[in-house]
Amino acid sequence: MPAELHDVDALRSLLGSEAQLLEVLPEQEYEEEHLPGAVNISLKKLTPAALDTLDRTRPVVVYCWDDA
Fold it and tell me: 25-34 contacts: CB < 8 A, separation 24 or more?
């Protein structure tokens, strides 16, 4: 079930329970800097087939850069 995380403690809890980190920025930005353990599937390449690389039994935390 999708939900927004705005609390660092909630994120730490999810990551502590084996959540997966998915960065959806372009590959070049991922290569420049990303969170430890994150995998990259850019939004332009985000397809059902690309998502098959994720473990569907574990939560997924999707993140990207936001200048707001």
Answer: 25/64, 25/65, 29/65
Summarize pLDDT for 38-58 with one digit per residue, the tens. Answer: 999 999 999 999 999 999 999
Angle at 57 between CA 62 and CA 52, to 5 degrees: 65
pTM attached to this predicted model = 0.80
CA distance 7 to 41: 24
Question: How many Å apart are CA 35 and CA 63, to the nearest integer?
Answer: 10
Q: Rounded to an integer, what distance in angstroms lies between the CA atom of residue 9 and that of residue 53?
A: 27
